[in-house]
Amino acid sequence: xxxxxxxxxxxxxxxxxxxxxxxxxxxxxxxxxxxxxxxxxxxxxxxxxxxxxxxxxxxxxxxxxxxxxxxxxxxxxxxxxxxxxxxxxxxxxxxxxxxxxxxxxxxxxxxxxxxxxxxxxxxxxxxxxxxxxxxxxxxxxxxxxxxxxxxxxxxxxxxxxxxxxxxxxxxxxxxxxxxxxxxxxxxxxxxxxxxxxxxxxxxxxxxxxxxxxxxxxxxxxxxxxxxxxxxxxxxxxxxxxxxxxxxxxxxxxxxxxxxxxxxxxxxxxxxxxxxxxxxxxxxxxxxxxxxxxxxxxxxxxxxxxxxxxxxxxxxxxxxxxxxxxxxxxxx
Length: 331
Known about the structure:
There is one protein chain. The radius of gyration is 19 Å and the shape is globular. The chain is an alpha/beta fold. It contains 10 helices and 18 strands. The strands form 4 sheets. Strands 3, 5, 6, 9, 10, 17 and 18 form a 7-stranded mixed beta sheet that branches. Helices cover 27% and strands 27% of the residues. The protein folds into 2 domains: 2-137 and 299-330, Medium-chain alcohol dehydrogenases, catalytic domain (Quinone Oxidoreductase, Chain A, domain 1, Alpha-Beta Complex); 143-275, Rossmann fold, CATH 3.40.50.720. The longest helix has 17 residues, at 138-154.
């Protein structure tokens, strides 16, 4: 089969790879669409020791099941493979399973390929008339939906009374803003440094879109909820400054693990900081429903390219040359 393989820092090669052989309980899926995630870019830059070269990246995928109870059906893939029997799995929080694996990390190759193998329990069927490129957005949108749900439980007031700031206009950040809009947040600001992505965000929903590098771009103490979809020292600093007393910071991004958080302010102003990681299967199914019913709008903030042009897509993302919040690759 053809696959897009990460071979070293800033190097992606389109080449032949062995077709996967499913183990017991697994099914092969023929990939129809797969998104490039920020974590794929992190690996591409050589910044993720969990993803050593050579490796097939990609974990945001839709395709057709070739066998099992979904045989012949279009499915989306939950890339998080959990043990199924620990306390977290049994309690409905498989995203916290200590033995979890994720496709695109050893020992599980990713979905930038014509085929992938995955446990049958990690599939969710989607309607045949759903655009595969939209279905492939299930994973990043589910990440955002889960984060907003975690934040809602921590807030001291309904979202309808909250001013919300989302830092980062990529797929997860923009999805978070769309989920917040669907749940009635009073005001929603989206901050991004890339002017192309700011333009995309402006067209995606009823948001105030700002450049965080400009003076006055983000109001200090101005938001009851701040969603950091970048997760870097600079964005944690911005989130700490922007959150209102008694507010909540929901931290999704994984850019780095250092600095930025104003612990003194969080303490003196009773700010809640919550980390949110991926999603549960409930979130995944709810996201499929939201996409199917059009709750999050037309999802016209994506760009589709052939899988064979994946190396150029990675390079364009690395240099900020695309306005799309998500590039979807089509095998």
